[in-house]
Design a protein that fits this description.
6-stranded antiparallel beta sheet; two-stranded antiparallel sheet
């Protein structure tokens, strides 16, 4: 059986080779093997050797928007008039239309007659698909005073259906409305809610 001294002599070259390999793999960076609490990224440009051997600075990432700048303004926001959106189209109504829609305050374009109702001070309620860009916009002008709109119009990919219910002008818009008939159920429900 080899003595402990002889065994240490045999393991010493292995330990030296392992230490040398660790230093070579770290690129001799001081403190590379020391534990750190958190990495500290450098914000200045670091020279990086290129194929020709010269050092070129690495570009420093810049934020997408300069500090203090305002994001681009979307077209028209949803407008809450004198009638609460929860009275115009209830949560149950919205679920029946599509359970994947939710009320939104995100700004967006108001197509066709919905924009006219917003301009006249009516109530405009917006709902958006929770995983996509599809929207449902419902606009109500309680005292239309003879104002009307086309019964159905296509504004891009959005169908806008409008009806006069007593003194109230109702208009609904969505990508889901390809024909006037597609919007009939929503218009009928809004009219029933306002009765």
């Amino acid at each position: 059986m080899p003595s402990p001294r002889h065994r240490i002599r045999r393991l010493l070259p292995v330990a030296i080779v392992a230490a040398a390999a660790a230093v070579a793999l770290t690129g001799c960076e001081p403190g590379a093997l020391a534990p750190t609490d958190s990495p500290t990224p450098s914000s200045s440009a670091q020279p990086t050797p290129s194929a020709g051997g010269s050092a070129e600075p690495t570009p420093t990432p810049t934020p997408s928007e300069p500090a203090g700048s305002e994001p681009a303004e979307p077209t028209t926001p949803p407008v809450a008039g004198e009638i609460a959106c929860s009275e115009v189209f209830t949560a149950d109504d919205l679920y029946a239309f599509n359970p994947n829609f939710a009320p939104t305050g995100e700004r967006g374009e108001l197509p066709g007659t919905t924009a006219d109702i917003a301009d006249a001070g009516g109530t405009v309620c917006a709902y958006q698909h929770v995983t996509g860009p599809d929207r449902l916009v419902i606009a109500v002008l309680p005292q239309a005073q003879g104002a009307t709109g086309p019964t159905f119009e296509a504004v891009g990919e959005v169908g806008v259906a409008t009806t006069l219910d007593g003194d109230a002008l109702l208009s609904v818009a969505s990508e889901y409305f390809v024909t006037e008939q597609d919007a009939a159920t929503v218009l009928e429900q809004v009219a029933a809610n306002l009765s």
